[in-house]
Hints:
The structure is a homodimer. Chain A has helices at about 10-20, 40-45, 65-75, 90-100, 110-120, 125-150, 165-180, 185-200, 200-205; strands at about 1-5, 30, 55, 65. With about 220 residues, chain A is α+β, with helices and mostly antiparallel strands. Chain A folds into 2 domains: about 1-80, 3-Layer(aba) Sandwich (Glutaredoxin), CATH 3.40.30.10; about 90-205, Up-down Bundle (Glutathione S-transferase Yfyf (Class Pi), Chain A, domain 2). The longest helix of chain A has 25 residues, at about 125-150. The radius of gyration of chain A is 17 Å and the shape is globular. Chain A starts with a strand and ends in a 12-residue tail after the last helix. Chains A and B meet through helix 3, helix 4, helix 5 and helix 6 of A and helix 3, helix 4, helix 5 and helix 6 of B.
Amino acid sequence: MKFFSFWRSLASFRVRCGLYLKGLTPSEVIDVNLMQGKQREEAFRKINPMMAIPALIENDGNVLFESLAILEYLEETHPNPPLLPKTPKARARVRALSQIVACDTHPLIVPRVREFLAHEYKVDEAGVQKWGHHWHEAAFKALEANLSGSKETGRYCHGDQITIADICLAGNAVGAFYFKCDLTPFPTVRRIVDLCWQNEAFARAHPLKQPGAPAAA
Amino acid sequence: MKFFSFWRSLASFRVRCGLYLKGLTPSEVIDVNLMQGKQREEAFRKINPMMAIPALIENDGNVLFESLAILEYLEETHPNPPLLPKTPKARARVRALSQIVACDTHPLIVPRVREFLAHEYKVDEAGVQKWGHHWHEAAFKALEANLSGSKETGRYCHGDQITIADICLAGNAVGAFYFKCDLTPFPTVRRIVDLCWQNEAFARAHPLKQPGAPAAA
């Protein structure tokens, strides 16, 4: 299994974390340097025309892309340990919390969007930082309201087992670090994120632990 | 079942279309006027702290939000007719195509983002139009490359049955209409979208067919 990823990519983190939680290790990790625009080069474009990472190529040549689609695939093909709860209602809540991050937040702060803001509207570095900060904060407000207000919340986002929602939440906390968004106003979020990083798979998958990450980031 | 929606909302369209395809009709439709900022009012904020539509409240009080999470829930609770194929690989492809729209594209053009561009960076109306046009075009380029290059593509995005990918694709075509993005360079996309609108559920769910939509939009 070939895994196309980049240390800083939060979508790559989500899949890396899911792989590790399922006890899977890619046979090859291919670095797609987003800061150098490698995702737009012909070779990668053939794999994922959306020019986004992560992507996975299985040994039989099957190509997978989009982080949540890959996580659902891993869940269907490697059901243990489960990363989704059993009942449709619980699954819907976990997916919705995940999508607050993976749909409503993270796609707004990826390189192509930050570059478009800078080139098209001449938004400066501080303005781009504000953009990233704003959308992370909006997500954490919504997540904190849901997590602190729901009796379904346990040690983790949903009950006492790790789910895809925890993976997404932890990834958003890394994004908050990139954009200097303080988690203090969001105690439930912070409690769960802190617990996630104590898990070995999360710790190993952390963006700042990957090859190429700055030592003092 | 109470359905919180707005005529123009493409995420509401996705769920409305899924409901109709499954033969379901909400007992009550509550208009959340995004142009008047009704999604940010206290009453709706309690239902979905992300302040986004659609949301569904079931008869037992269960709250559902995030369009793709709701569609997966409908699939699990009302499996016929199916809106996802059977095999994990096929499901992964359908979900990935759906997420090009519902994660990578649509969240960029929702009211809160357009308003932030206008207020924070003083982007004028033409600049906001360009933004919407740019992200729709990027999605259609990726979708056309995948759809035209895959032997899995049939009459619809995946084979000859309607899936969630077709719902997302048709919604993106409505977004293209809002932002004057020409579909001519994307013949496979256009062929499938045209076929979707011939389906009664799609036609009934079309944003411009909902109460409140402008007659000559």
